[in-house]
Amino acid sequence: MSEEILKRYKIRAKKALWQNFLVNENIIENIASIIDTTDKNIIEVWPWYWALTEILLKQELESLTLIELDSDMIKILDNRILLWELESSNTNFEIKNLDVLRYIPEFSKYSVIANIPYYITSPILTHFLYKLEKAPDEMVILMQKDVWDKILDIFKDKKPKSSVIWLMMAKKSFVTEELFVAKENFVPAPKVESSVLKFVSHNKFNNIDDKDFLRIIKIWFSSARKKLIKNFINSWFEKNSILEIFNKLDINENIRWDAIWIEQWCELVDELSKINI
Description:
By secondary structure, the chain is of the alpha/beta class. It has helices spanning about 1-10, 25-30, 50-55, 70-80, 120-130, 145-150, 165-170, 210-220, 230-235, 240-250, 260-270; strands at about 20, 40-45, 65, 90-95, 110-115, 140-145, 175-180, 185, 195-200. It contains eleven helices and nine strands. The protein has a seven-stranded mixed β-sheet. The chain has a two-stranded antiparallel ribbon with strand order 1-8. Helix 5 links the parallel strand 5 and strand 6 (about 140-145). Helix 5 runs parallel beside helix 7 (about 165-170).
């Protein structure tokens, strides 16, 4: 059915928008089933040719909002609705033709399903987790697997190997890999494999100010120095102040910048934010 839609509407992927269309029906159905959508407000980001949309509309949603940047895809959607290929009689159904980074949800509780290319992975995660007043309860994100593998490094060998994107996600949500998606399941086939991730929001670190957190982790990763403490002392803090904080938190002053768990990062932010920077 998916490839039939592509042929019927002569849909061609636009390289400028990094489009690769998922056409495996079983995988599309599995993505739709990862979270319970019953009576929920669902935001689908970059639905493209609406294969997943068609499945979601058959579920008992409270609402479905589509965020699509490609105007040509909007025209195809309108045509499919006119031909009764998509029905939304029991769901509040809305289409917004805009950049997702400019979108502000109107719901107090909502979930997100998205297919995001590599180049915009971090901006979209930042938008939903940090820029909005209310973060989503859950997100199901299809992204390039190599991005997820870098995030997963922290769990390998039971040793922390932090990165900016991992820290950003860990502060706000629990993340699990739900599906591996081989590149052969896309048209055109991308050069890399993909993964479907599930994000579940938590409030474990709500006491840590987001702006302080983002500002300070940028200091942490501001250079390739191996010792975390050197990134602070050289540009921002007095050595005695940093050593005092490290001692208080029982952190070895020789620890590497990439060898601290999220709990310790947040403790550090809490202490460092008390110093005027």
